[in-house]
Amino acid sequence: MADTVAAAPTRPRLLLIEDDPQLGPLMAQVLDEVYDVTLCADGGEAFDIAMEQSFDAMVVDRRLPTVDGLTLVESLRRAGSQVPMLILTAMGTVQDKVRGLDAGAADYLVKPFEFDELFARLRAIRRVTNGEGPFVRIGEWEFYPDSRAVYSPYDGRTILTERESALLRLLATNPQQTFTRAAILRAVFSSDDTPGTVDTYVHYLRKKTEPSIVQTIHGRGYRLGLV
């Protein structure tokens, strides 16, 4: 059996640049539920950090000391950074938004904001940057067959193996159908595999996502859960 069980995914890294002494730590605390957050309060320092370390996303306040948010985004883009960046600001006119997007930001969120919206916008800009392609929604999960990626409700991204992805694709495209082990073997695996292989990969899928993503129908087989 070629596939192996992958290690648990690490949290995506996020660089948060916010100089408000109250809002910055609060945002870092909330975002830390999903991301490995690095908090910085200075635009010039943030540029150095962004160039020296690897991040999956950035949240940039518009007004910063030393280097303002727009200049920071422009400078990072000129330096070759492809990290998706979201500008966060109280300046919410159409012209302000256009300037932010033209500077190279992937999105623009106006204060005050709800954290649910911030999380959703971060998920969106990361998906676009990663080029995931069309997705299938499974409960609160999102499955991207083209890239074999699954996203948890809290933004955790996990890459499935070829076989895991093929199994989940089979179940997700036929959400009301129960598949016997023999049917799954024919559709996903090779003639050299046994029914126990199906059970093994169901276990792998559940471990990488959550137990209820695949439902066991006793005496019959498996079907998609969370429908």
TrEMBL record:
List of residues that carry 4-aspartylphosphate: D61
Where in the numbering of this chain does the Response regulatory domain appear?
13-126
Point out the DNA-binding stretch(es): 133-226
Q: Where in the cell is it found?
A: Cytoplasm
Q: Which UniProt keywords apply?
A: DNA-binding, Phosphoprotein, Transcription, Transcription regulation, Two-component regulatory system
Supply one GO BP term: regulation of DNA-templated transcription
What is an example of a Pfam family matching this protein? Response_reg
Record domain OmpR/PhoB-type: where? 133-226
* InterPro entries according to UniProt: CheY-like_superfamily, OmpR/PhoB-type_DNA-bd, Sig_transdc_resp-reg_C-effctor, Sig_transdc_resp-reg_receiver, WalR-like, WH-like_DNA-bd_sf
Q: Which GO terms describe its cellular component?
A: cytosol; protein-DNA complex
- For this protein, what is any one GO molecular function term? transcription cis-regulatory region binding
Matching SUPFAM superfamilies, A to Z? C-terminal effector domain of the bipartite response regulators, CheY-like
Q: Which domain of life is it from?
A: Bacteria
- SMART domains for the chain: REC (SM00448), Trans_reg_C (SM00862)
Q: What is this protein called?
A: DNA-binding response regulator
Source organism of the structure? Microbacterium enclense
